[in-house]
Amino acid sequence: MNGFIELLQKVLMPIAAKMNASKYIRAMRDGFVLSLAYTMVGSILTSIFSIPALADWFGAETMGAIQAFVNPTTVMTNSIISIFVVVGIGYSFANQEGGINPLHGAATALVMFLMTCPYTIDVGDGKTITGLDFSYVGAKAIFTAIFFGFVGVKIYKWAVTHKLSIKLPDSVPASIQDSFTSFLPAGMAMLIALVIRFLFGLTPQGNMTDFIFYWVQRPLSGIALSYPAMLLMGMLNNLFWFFGLHGQTMVSSVWRPFLTQASTENIEALAAGQALPNLINNGFSGSFIMYGFWISVPLLIALFLYTKRHKRNDWHDVAKIGLAPGLFNIYEPLMFGFPLVLNPFALIPMLLTPIISCTVGYFACLFGILPYATGVGLPITTPVVISGLLQFNSVTAGLIQLVLMIPLTAMWYLFLGIQDRSERQSGVYKEEEEESNAAK
Asked: What percent helix, strand, coil does the chain show, rounded to 5?
């Protein structure tokens, strides 16, 4: 087991170090985080006022009026999520690149992104009107937004670095100076955007977003949002945590574009009263894979049960310290206090946990026991049961989460027993010393 752990450590640690040091990974994380507060409000309101029972209580006409009232919170958040992404990535990346005004870097990225969007809308009968279709700034355009978040800043910085800017006297206020500094770099970026727009206009898809969606985003989403991919995501998350690395940060940087796209599509469908298209999205991931309660809650229950029957004051103290944060998905006290990090007895249950929870959740949705998760965004500290209830608009989801705690607790209890016996036999844990220390 120790040899296997050492092998994993040699493979994973260099990867993790490069990911943590990457400006591109950090910028993508910051870009999606920017949208979180706004999309969370929009998705929660949409989800709440789409509960079928409310129409029975208040009447269909009243609920229709309420839904129309809150609908802008979805349209102006989830439906324009790519704008948040390109601005967030552009600002973060420009800030990390240094030497340029991050606000102007983000603005350049945004303008390039918007310039490649179609601005005619087909209204049927061969007629079009001038306007921006929300689909070209929504979930479908996420990969285009990521591209321009980086490329826009790179072009802007290249121009500034090569002195392609207007320099005013130092006495001119900084805000005015920055605007003149941006004149030539922004002009160059916009000309390049026009060329990109023209070239993609020659393709069968007719524009950059549809081209990327057809050839890149849709095929990759089919892979990334599959059942095997979710198992891999959950196992990698816990595997990184096993080595003391923040698993959610490492894993989300890869899967977040796909999960966000799926969540946005579900929220938009929910607001429109349509069937939800995606089984796997952020709501499913949070409810059955990524939230910390899948480790903290069953382990805490197992610790309290085990230490009640078998005297282990050290474990009991850790459980008491980790109880309050653990119920709200903060499991660092258990990771580093128990510890789970580099604990060979914890590796197997940490890897099995997402396999069990994801499998039950996935097939419950597949066979119609659960509805699809709405895609609603929730704080990561949302407790178990409540998360399932809110993310699926279903009491059954919360109950399934609760029932899943039984086999997971039993699994952790089994491995606690194995670890306890091993530590007593090897002398790592000595009850006599503990009693002596307690007496002092």
From this structure: 75, 0, 20
Residue type, 208: M
Here the tokens at position 40 are 């969370």
Give the whole-angstrom CA distance, residue 217 versus residue 279: 17
Nearest CA among 408, 440, 428 for reference residue 312: 428
* SS3 state at 63: helix
- 418: Cα separation from own chain's centroid: 35
pLDDT digits (tens, 9 = 90+) for 33-71: 888 888 888 888 888 777 766 777 877 788 788 888 888
- 273 Cα distance to chain centroid: 25
Q: Residue 440: pLDDT band by 50, 70, 90 thresholds?
A: very low
pTM value surpassing 0.90: no
Asked if residues 300 and 287 have their Cβ atoms less than 8 Å apart, the reply is: no
Cβ contacts of 427 within 8 Å, gap of 6 or more: none
Query: Among residues 91, 194, 83, which one has the least CA distance to residue 140?
Result: 83
Choose among 163, 141, 323, 149: nearest CA to 216.
141
- The residue among 56, 53, 51 whose CA lies nearest residue 67 is 51
Per-residue pLDDT tens over the stretch 251-306: 887 898 999 999 999 999 988 889 999 999 999 999 999 888 899 999 999 999 99
Element (H, E) at 130: strand 127-130
